[in-house]
Write a structure and sequence with these properties.
three-stranded antiparallel β-sheet, two-stranded antiparallel ribbon, alpha+beta
Length: 118
């Protein structure tokens, strides 16, 4: 009897994976931007910074190349049921996150473990 073992790809950690609508590659949820269609009859696409907004979501890597691919493929309209106004997404990607960044010169403080001889 010939028994084959099947290998199942295991995601790193317990991080949920999502697919980018631009490059179609999978990535961890914390690496991608969540996008939602604005309600009330508008066709605008909004960036869901907190990942809590109601409605159907789409995911996009925060890079200009993935944004360009998504625009070229008309992926926003398919993923978000007709939403095509991408001005907010373009502003977010080209200007970076609206959250204050930590200066590059800041170094994290590392405390030695208790009982260590260092």
């Amino acid at each position: 009897m010939n028994v084959r073992k099947m290998t199942v790809p295991v995601a790193s950690g317990n991080q949920p994976e999502r697919t980018c609508i631009g490059c179609r590659k999978k990535g961890a949820r914390n690496e991608l931007l969540r996008l939602v269609a604005e309600g009330s009859g508008s066709n605008a696409v909004l960036v869901d910074e907190r990942r809590r907004m109601a409605g159907r979501g789409a995911w996009l890597h925060p890079s200009e190349s993935c944004l360009a691919l998504a625009l070229k493929r008309r992926a926003f309209g398919r993923a978000l049921r007709g939403a095509t106004g991408t001005a907010a997404v373009e502003r977010r990607i080209t200007s970076g996150p609206s959250v204050a960044r930590v200066p590059a010169t800041a170094t994290p403080t590392v405390q030695p473990e208790s009982g260590s001889e260092n």
